[in-house]
Design a protein that fits this description.
alpha/beta; 5 helices; binds NADP nicotinamide-adenine-dinucleotide phosphate; 14% strand; Rossmann fold
Length: 246
């Protein structure tokens, strides 16, 4: 769709995969203007060009819609690629649930906030500033375990349910933006199991050849992004470019 994007926005930019995607984009497309959104400050994002390109914001709160909208409106042009990387699987107190009895409202709601609302608020902010003629490629990092068809094992209730909800959000967005924008492509991408803080507690049973470094996953994701065309919009893609059933 856009071999060489002139502006790329990465949300959740301090994350393991997000940082590697940023580095890969700068390596491949040195002229690209890289914009970042993160709860953390710009100096915690290695190689970043500076304050004008960064907004410290918690995307899971509704006030982020206006804050991101204003930030984007200040930029010389709207982003061509938007890569939304926000996601949560566990925190210091909470592990993914193995059974129904371990499910708690608080954690399901927190998973929904980070895994769904962060992406929704970003889309709302973008929706407000995008000119009709502006080409747009949107990718949300989802997870294969959010596929309802693919679910053979059960467990991980909050993560699976929130990623399934994200997947529906992405499908809907692909339909709305196909009507509204002249050239858009909206996809969900499963990055594959990647060695970041998100997967760290669950790596013991992952064979070494199934665990990728952030740099390898980022390389695969940017390969996919560079090849997408408008007719791919509405797809759920795996790290190798194959389609995952919703
Ligand atoms: N690693 C894997 O094996 C794997 C597998 C399948 C799918 N994924 C998906 O890929 C994406 C990136 O994952 P990653 O492995 O790079 O994870 P990570 O290093 O933990 O990064 C996740 C990012 O989500 C953002 N986030 C926003 N609000 C948050 C909150 N309240 N609590 C925690 N994080 C919050 C953070 O960005 P800021 O702090 O910069 O705002 C954080 O850096 C996620 O959506 C994840 O579900 C990862």
């Amino acid at each position: 769709m856009l071999e060489s994007p002139h502006s790329v926005l990465i949300a959740g930019a301090s994350g393991g995969i997000a940082q590697a995607i940023g580095a890969e984009i700068i390596r491949r497309y040195p002229q690209t203007r890289l914009l970042t959104l993160s709860r953390t400050s710009v100096d915690r994002i290695p190689g970043h060009a500076g304050e004008r390109h960064h907004l410290s914001v918690a995307l899971d709160g509704p006030e982020s819609v206006d804050a991101v909208g204003s930030f984007l409106a200040e930029q010389p042009s709207p982003p061509h690629w938007i890569i939304s990387c926000c996601g949560i699987l566990h925190d210091e107190f909470q592990r993914p649930e193995k059974s129904l009895s371990q499910c708690e409202d608080r954690w399901l709601l927190q998973s929904m906030r980070v895994n769904v609302l962060s992406h929704l608020h970003l889309a709302q902010a973008v929706d407000g500033i995008l000119p009709r003629r502006s080409p747009l490629l949107w990718a949300s990092l989802s997870a294969k375990v959010g596929s309802i068809t693919d679910n053979q094992l059960g467990g991980w209730y909050s993560y699976r349910a929130s990623k399934a909800a994200l997947n529906m959000l992405i499908k809907n967005l692909s339909i709305e933006w196909a009507r509204k924008l002249e050239e858009s492509c909206v996809v969900a991408i499963h990055p594959g199991t990647t060695d970041t803080s998100l997967s760290k507690p669950f790596q013991a049973n992952v064979p070494p050849d199934k665990l990728s470094s952030p740099a390898v996953s980022a390389n695969r994701i940017v390969n996919i992004l560079g090849q997408l065309v408008a007719s791919d919009s509405g797809k759920f893609l795996s790290w190798d470019g194959s389609e995952i059933p919703w």
